[in-house]
Amino acid sequence: MSAVGTAPPVQPRAPGSSTTASERGSLTIANGVVARIAARAATEARGVGGSAHRLFGVPVGAERAGRDVQVEATVNGATVALDVRLSMTYPMPVRRVAEDVRHHLSGRVRALTGLIVSRVEITVTALHPQAATTGRVR
Length: 138
Hints:
Elements: H1 21-24, H2 31-43, E1 48-49, E2 53-55, E3 58-60, E4 70-76, E5 79-90, H3 94-113, E6 116-129
Parallel strand pairs: 5-6
Antiparallel strand pairs: 1-5, 2-3, 4-5
Helix pairs in contact: 2-3
């Protein structure tokens, strides 16, 4: 039987000393986590709304600006590919809004995860009049 508390103390590293990656451990960010971060980041872009969930390619529920943006993320090492389904406010220019979303997603995902975004595929599922994004006044 061994006595409690007899393990040798862990020696702290000196400030500025380097460690190898294997000594630090590894970090894996799940596809779903990156997808959630990207979905939230997409809604930060001007003129972007959500998309209805789909089952076998058929929308389930209404396409509303207030829904969540749908994102699928595929992490491969230090890179991630994003497939985004969203709606946009009409009459904003679709191509410009899509480029803004692409740029914003790349920056936010990299800042929050450290992953490099290799591609962002965007599918615009609906256009909503500007009044639809402000909500209903009672």
